[in-house]
Design a protein that fits this description.
By secondary structure, this protein is an alpha+beta fold. The chain has five helices and 13 strands.
Length: about 280
């Protein structure tokens, strides 16, 4: 496998790494219990539940709990394997990815190379897909047993960085006009939506093992100030907003992220980061 490098992506994945770090802080704040629950708050709403029909950081932060990609960024922003256990560039324009074995989907079936191919083709061909640029230069994606071969029409140095944003779904969902129930191989299985559009997920013992938090609820508010008020009132365990809202303050804007995690009666600052899911012109 090519040695993972520190990523310098135009396509940052910092928002998800930030949120994951905050969740780990909460999970480590006491003895692990089978019914451990965490509520995560946001200052806006996801634009869709379809992992291929958005180019939005908040939406990715939510859906990345349900879906995985071939590769991903660690909290230290190093590229590492996700659904691909190992990979290699076998020529200037050819990459070969070897998939993990026996990876279950949330609602039945196991991951195959055909699922990866179907996911990539959906991103490339769906008329509403805003993510085609992630696969710009890709000329062919084929399944070879438990391997996926990606061919490009020219060398694409940042291909791995791009693939970290291409969610893999079961191929039986690839023909859907818009996926309303996200399904993948992620650490949480989608349960449904609640009041105010909140999203419920339950721990899924997949290829990563069972996560320490058994139930997660994503709650959405109209702006950072409303979400911050909810957090300060003790109704959220993790707050993820553009900026911690206070009356009279403005948000950092679409390119800033901030997360806070509650521990006991105190608050842990999980840090801030800059990220973007948009390709540079």
């Amino acid at each position: 496998m090519d040695t993972p490098r520190r990523a310098r992506p135009r396509l940052g994945k910092l928002s998800g790494a930030l949120l994951a770090s905050a969740l780990l802080l909460v999970a480590a704040c006491g003895p692990v219990e089978d019914d451990r629950r965490v509520t995560v708050g946001f200052g806006d709403h996801p634009v869709t539940l379809d992992p291929h029909l958005h180019n939005n950081n908040l939406t990715w932060s939510v859906l990345s709990s349900f879906c995985d990609s071939l590769v991903e960024f660690s909290p230290e922003m190093e590229l590492q394997g996700a659904l691909a256990e190992r990979w290699a560039r076998t020529g200037p324009t050819t990459w070969r990815f070897e998939l993990r074995g026996s990876v279950p989907f949330h609602r039945g079936g196991t991951l195959s190379a055909a699922d990866v191919v179907a996911s990539f083709e959906r991103v490339r061909a769906h008329p509403r897909s805003p993510l085609r640029y992630l696969l710009a230069g890709v000329s062919r994606v084929v399944a070879e047993g438990d391997r996926v071969v990606v061919e490009t029409d020219r060398p694409v140095p940042d291909l791995l960085n791009r693939l970290a944003f291409v969610a893999v779904i079961p191929r039986r969902l690839a023909a859907e006009h818009e996926i309303g129930i996200p399904e993948g191989t992620g650490s949480y299985r989608f349960l449904g939506r609640g009041a105010g559009g909140s999203i419920e997920g339950e721990a899924f013992a997949g290829w990563r093992g069972r996560p320490p938090v058994s139930r997660v609820t994503f709650v959405f508010d109209e702006g950072s100030e409303a979400a911050t008020t909810r957090f300060l009132a003790g109704k959220l365990d993790v707050l993820r907003v553009a900026q911690v809202g206070r009356p009279g303050q403005s948000d950092l804007g679409a390119d800033g992220a901030h997360a806070l995690a509650r521990r006991g009666r105190g608050t842990l600052d999980a840090g801030s980061a800059v990220y973007s899911l948009r390709a540079e012109p």
